Amino acid sequence: MALDEIGESRFPPPGRTPREDTAAVMKFYRLPKAFPPAALDEARRIARGAIPAKGRLDLRKKFVFTCDPESARDFDDALSLETDRRGNRVLGVHIADVSHYVKPGSALDREAYRRGTSVYLCDRVVPMLPEELSNGVCSLVPGEDRLAFSVFMTFDRSGEMVRREFAKSVIRSRARFTYEQVMAVIRGGRASVAGVGPKELRTVRAIAALAMELRARRFAAGALDIEIPEAEVALDRDGELESITARPYDESHQMVEECMVAANEAVAKELWTRGIRILARLHEPPDPEKLLMLRAELKSIGVKAGNLGNQKVMAQFLASVKGHPLYPTIAMMVLRSMKRAVYDASTIGHFGLAKRYYAHFTSPIRRYPDLTLHRQLAAWLEKRDAKVPPKLLAKWAEHSSEREEIAAEAERGLLEIKKYRLLDAQLSTRQILDYDAVVTKCAPFGCFVEIPELAVSGLVHVSLLSRKFVRFNESDQTLSAPGGGSWRVGDRMRVHVARVDFDARRVDFVPVGRRDR
Prior knowledge:
Layout: H1 21-28, H2 37-48, E1 57-58, E2 65-68, E3 77-83, E4 89-96, H3 98-101, H4 107-115, E5 119-120, E6 125-126, H5 131-137, E7 145-155, E8 161-172, E9 175-178, H6 179-186, H7 198-220, E10 231-235, E11 241-246, H8 251-272, E12 280-282, H9 288-300, H10 311-320, H11 327-337, E13 342-344, H12 368-381, H13 390-429, E14 435-443, E15 446-451, E16 456-461, E17 471-473, E18 478-480, E19 486-487, E20 492-501, E21 506-511
Parallel strand pairs: 1-8, 2-9
Antiparallel strand pairs: 3-4, 4-7, 5-6, 7-8, 10-11, 12-13, 14-15, 14-20, 15-16, 17-18, 18-19, 20-21
Helix pairs in contact: 1-13, 2-4, 2-5, 7-8, 9-11
C-alpha cells in the first residue's frame, strides 16, 4: 500500500480531543491495533517454553552487557570485548535470536511481515512482535539465559577489522546500563550497576575507545556526520504536549551505534561476497542536479562549498561547518539533497555511512529485514541453501521500504499534531510565547522560518516584514525593503504564532513587535 493510497489528504487528521490523536493517526495510516489470535497463541506457547542452550556457543560466563535508554523495555543487542593471543581486540555484538522462535510461514511470521517494523509514536509503541517475545523471551534482560546470534569482529591496533566470525549462542547479560551510566563510565566515573566492578568498567571504556576509532575511520573514508538532534516529547494525562527536549547524542550513544554499524557491515559483507543476495540497506549518492541546487542554496547564505559530488569533500565540508552559527540550517539543506535510504535486493552500498556492504541485522525484534538476514546467515553457517528467489527478495524489499516509510510518516504526523495543538492553545488562551526563529527560505510572498526549540516551520508573510513595499530578489533569494530591512536564509528573528491551520498543516508567524491581540 503506497502512501498516496492512504486517505484523501497526505496529512493525518487530529483527534476530536488530544487523547484521541493517536487513534486518529493509527486509523489514517491503518496501523494494526491487536495481534491475530493465532499469533498471540504462538507467542504464549513460546514464552512458556524452556531456553534450549544445547548445541550453542555458551557465553553465559562472559561479561556481556546491554546499553539502552532509561525507559527501554526491550533489549535486543548486547556487547562484549576480549583480547586474542596477538593482542587484537575481539568485539562481540550479540543480537536476540528472534529467528529461533519466529519460523517462516508461521502466524507470527506472517504478522511480522505484514507490519514490517515497529512504530514508535509519542505515547505508545505499535510493535512488530507480541510483548511475550519483544519484552519477554527475546529481550536480553540481565540475569536471564537468552538465545542470541553473535557476531565476533577482530580489530587490530589501527582499528581495522581483520577477522569476522558468527555463532548461534546463549548468553546471560551481566548488567543493564543506561546511556547516562555508560557516559559517566566513559568520563572516568563509576556506575552504580549491580555486579559491575573495576574490571567490567574498564571493558566498557575499552569498547567506547574502539567505537571512537571506528567512527574516526568512517569519517576519514567519507561518511557524513550530520547532527540534527531528535526530539523527545512528554505528554500530560490529557494528551497535550508538555515538553520537547533534544535527545542527547553523546559518546555513549555513538558507542552503541558504531558497534551496530560494524556488525551490520560484517554480516552484509559475509553473505554478499559469498554470492548470496540479501535485503541490503541501500543509500545511493545524491543526484548531481540536487547537488547543484545545494551549492546554490549554500551560496545564498554566504557559505562556500567545494565539489560536493566527491564524497570525501562533502564529509570535510560538513566537518568544517560544525561550529557555524547556521549549522542547523546547513545540515537540513544537505539532508534535503540526499536520497532516502531503502531496502534493495539487487544492489548494495551505503553512501551516508561510507560502507560498500551494508544491511540491517541488529534489530530483529523491531524490523523484518533484520529477521530475514538472521535466517539467511543461519542457513549459510549450517551449510543449507541461504539463497532467496530474486522475485521474492525484491517483493520483500519493496514491502519493507513501504512499511518503514509509513511508520516514519505516522511518527512524524502525530508529533506534528501535538506541536500544532501547543501553538493553537497559545492562541485560544491568549498566552502567546515568543520564540527564536531562523529563516530557511525566502519567496515573493514572505519567508519561511524554523523554530529550533520546537522543530516547527511556518511562514512570516511579506506584509508583516515591513510597512514599506518588500521586493524579492530572485538572484540571491532575498527580500528587501526600501530604506532598510532585508531578509535572507540564515537570518534570525523573534516570532510568535498568529494562525494554526490543521487541515493545511500550516502555521503563520508574526515578528515580535507586530503583535495584534
